[in-house]
Amino acid sequence: MGNWVANHWFSAVVLIAWLGLNIFLFIYYFMFFQNQKQYAYTRVLLGPALAWARGSAACLNFNCLLILLPVCRNLLSFLRGTCSCCRRSVRKQLDHNLAFHKILGYTIALMTAVHTIAHLFNVERFYDGAQSANNTLKGMLSSMGDDDGDWVNPIRSKRETQSSLCFTTIAGVSGVVITLALILMITSSTEFIRRCYFEVFWYTHHLFVIFFAGLLIHGVGRIVRGQTSGSLESNSYDSCYEKYSIWKGKKGRDDDDDHDDEECLMPSFQGNDPMTWKWIIAPIIIYILERFLRFYRSQQRVVVIKTVSHPSKALEIQMQKRGFKMEVGQYIFINCPLVSRLEWHPFTLTSAPEEDMFSVHIRSAGDWTDSLIKVFQENADNPPCLQVDGPFGTASEDVFKYDVSMLVGAGIGVTPFASILKSIWYKFQNEDHRLKTKKIYFYWICRETGAFAWFADLLRSLEQEMISSGKDGFLNYRLFLTSWDSSIAGHAIINFDVAIDTVTGLKQKTSYGRPNWENEFTHVAETHPWSTVGVFLCGPQALGKTLQQCCHQHSSMDPRKVQFYFNKENF
């Protein structure tokens, strides 16, 4: 429990504050439109659905204000840099940007459903009011005003239908467009679609442009109307409701007829000023500036200096770009116009900040990566043009801020740790460099032996460097092979006593099967009883849940003793 609080207390505070503001906004605007006198006659027409529509609209405005900010990657990288001196519990919130983005998206979907259903009731009530007899209050209110005047019911004649209000007004058409765009964005954002049909997700998600354009004009029609302040003085619902049979014949304040109840003049109405743009204009401007910056950086010339084909269908691309500066574990977006002019895909950098180039390792994992690898293989002497956007920060930047770090990579998920281990190699060569981190445990889990090949050279160099510098105890690495055939197993048994591993050529022998995380965490906790341990994962969600649970279980209740902090790569 103590570690859960240490890891998640700030997240809990943020979520509670966000939820509290949503509840406050909904209740405030619900009660405002349910009780305010200027909407008393509007409520006669619409009933409680008016308050439900306005309360949900306030929550929509608030969440639409926030939803673009978690995907402003340059903004997050800037905040990560400025928060480098802050407590890790504050910095870690930046790693939850996509999770928060999803929560905001689902909340917007929920509030849109409430808002839409409430307005469907309102449309039906408007229609009923227009069909009511003129000697009823609803009928009289519906017949008041003209098309350009102080009407309260937007359905202006008995011939108009509910469909005409939904599909011929600005509010109705923009509402339909917004809802359809949101449905497409939400349904295409499921895990299955993103994993198997990334292009579908990528293209449909850009409907957010239409979504926000619709939001900006949605309230221009001013469908929801309340009494003007002057009208409230001459026709208060509380005092004039029973007298509507008298004041319904009056046309306004200029009527000179002398009646005992002259204070009850014909009410006049006006629409509310559009409010949504005031909520979302600032984040829209920030996002536009973000996109301009990313476009400018992506247009800077990238030189591909070397490509290497590795086993397991992995391609290494080494590049140079003027002004490119990176930190360990960061990632970039890559676009290859020869494959697709619009698609950008994220890849973790496998180079170290100390190198004069930057590199990525791309594994065949879909149509786009297959096409990219094929294009580079077919044009080895004249590699195609690439556009690069980034780099952007990740949780792995904090790897050297812990006393002990546990790095867990699954398959190609080893890429951020390649950058870290290379950086360690350079730091060891710089004798003046001092690291806070005293020990690194590295775990790499692969399904096939070929995947080890491209990374083994780096580990071999690290082995030699640590031995020569007298720091051979700094890095403890374990390689796990989860799928093998009988020939590999037999070969490993025959060469069990050989000093070098038969699969990787390293001194550390390859383990067969999956790690026993309970044993691994117990060993680290016993070996480093007074340390803060950062656990870094680049791999599947299921493994992340296991590691996070182990972090909670093996952390001491005493904050002065061993504490495990879980960090996961998030693109």
Quick summary:
The protein has 571 residues and is an alpha/beta fold. The protein has 22 helices and 14 strands.
Proportion of residues in extended strands: 5-15%
What count of helical segments does DSSP give?
22
Structural class: alpha/beta
Radius of gyration: 32 Å
Per DSSP E runs of 2 or more residues, the count of β-strands stands at 14
Relative helix content:
40-55%
The major β-sheet equals: 6 strands, parallel
What is the averaged pLDDT score? 82
Shape assignment: elongated
Quaternary form: single chain
Unreliable spans? 251-261
User: What is the topology, as strand order, of the major beta sheet?
Assistant: 12-11-10-9-13-14
The end-to-end distance, rounded to whole angstroms, is 28 Å
